[in-house]
Amino acid sequence: MPAHWRWPPADQLLLPFALAGGGRFTTVKPSQHALTAADVIALFTDRRCSFEQQPDGVHLVSVA
To answer: Which terminus has fewer CB within 10 Å in the chain: N or C?
Structure first.
């Protein structure tokens, strides 16, 4: 991967994934803002977001 490439910020992707019906992506450790966004999404939609650290250090984000 190119040196200038960055992982997508989870907080920016949660809502589009929730509105699209769900999905999964990987990112760096989720920020407090991403965790709060996941809680707000759960309040207004029937979608739940989970964050699971993978063995290689990235975090798998699932929106279902």
So the answer is: N
Instruction: Reduce the secondary structure of 3-59 to three states and give it as a string.
Output: CCCCCCCHHHHHHHHHHCCCEEEEECCCCHHHHHHHHHHHHHCCCCEEEEECCCCCE
Question: What topology is assigned to 10-63 in CATH?
Answer: Ribosomal Protein S8; Chain: A, domain 1 (3.30.1370)
- Between CA 37 and CA 6 the distance in angstroms is 20
36 sits in which H/E element: helix 32-44
| Spans in the chain with pLDDT lower than 70 | 1-7
